[in-house]
Amino acid sequence: MPELRAANFGADDGTIMGNVRTGLSVSLDGFIAGPNDGPEAPMGVGGEKLLAWYSAGDTEYRLPGSDMVFMVSAQTAEYLAETRRTTGALVFGRRTFDLTHGWGGKHPLDVPVFVVTRSVPQDWVYEGSPFTFVSDGLESALDQAKAVAGDKYVGVGAAGIVQQCIKAGLLDEIHVDLVHVLLGDGVSLFDHLGTGPIDLQSTRVIDGTGVTHLTFRVIK
Ligand SMILES: NC(=O)c1ccc[n+]([C@@H]2O[C@H](COP(=O)([O-])OP(=O)(O)OC[C@H]3O[C@@H](n4cnc5c(N)ncnc54)[C@H](OP(=O)(O)O)[C@@H]3O)[C@@H](O)[C@H]2O)c1
Question: What average pLDDT does this structure show over 141-151?
């Protein structure tokens, strides 16, 4: 059984209407990618270690609506299923979109993705596209994402977007898949906050294989 601590959910199915949360794999020293990320190494040098937990367990998790199969611990499988069930839309920055080539055409969670950018890539704009490019600011992207997410969460990433959300008081939950590694360098999740301390309330800890899923409420 996952270790659950003081769950702080608003509804029976674990969702809180319109809440904004992160959902990123992060090293113990706070990096979501290694240094020198780019087309050849989207997760940077050594960054693939942040994803190793997806194949470190003995329980199969098939991501619905995709051909992705993960081997994780039983508690992580349960957690991944819950994440998919409770995520209604995503807001991502343009770098992640470009580095993943638009997740190959559709995000694995199979929900609408709002990509914050200063320039719209016209070849990705077509009828029925799962991607909406938002060039009038992060807040606009969040509003649009909340409108389609309904009573589910809006997930946000990556580092630059999360930092802006925190600074603007727009982030409700910090969820991280804490990977048991020190990367030493790379893309830091919590750089450039430029604010005083931000208090967090730990709401859940799930121990997996090679990963610990941590959830905090941001105290506002
Ligand atoms: N560990 C994980 O779970 C995970 C998950 C996803 C990504 N990643 C990693 O995260 C890294 C990318 O994150 P990142 O923080 O560098 O970039 P990012 O947040 O993905 O994208 C930043 C870009 O978004 C656009 N943008 C951001 N805020 C904007 C605003 N307010 N208005 C208009 N445009 C805005 C800008 O692009 P333009 O200037 O081009 O418009 C900016 O350069 C990669 O290394 C990736 O591999 C890790």
Answer: 97
How many angstroms separate the CA atoms of 133 and 115, rounded? 5
For every residue of 8-77, DSSP letters joined together read: --SSTTS--TT-EEE-EEEETTSEEE-SS-BTTBTT-TTGGGGGGGGGSSSEEEE-TTSS-EEEE-HHHH
Q: Which atom of ligand 1 is nearest to the CA of 97?
A: 20
Distance from C-alpha of 41 to C-alpha of 162, rounded to nearest angstrom: 22
User: Does residue 10 have a pLDDT over 70?
Assistant: no
Q: Which of 142, 159, 48, 65 is nearest to 106 (CA)?
A: 65
| 134: three-class secondary structure by DSSP | strand
CA 110/CA 84 separation, integer angstroms: 9
Per-residue tokens: 212: 């610990």
> Could you tell me the distance, in angstroms and rounded to a whole number, from the CA of residue 98 to the centre of ligand 1?
9
What's the burial of 58, exposed, middle or buried (CB within 10 Å: 0-12/13-18/19+)?
exposed
pLDDT tens digit sequence for 80-130: 999 999 999 999 999 999 999 999 999 999 999 999 999 999 989 889 999
Structure tokens at 35: 């240094």
188 lines ligand 1 (CB under 6 A): no
Q: Determine the pLDDT at residue 16.
A: 55
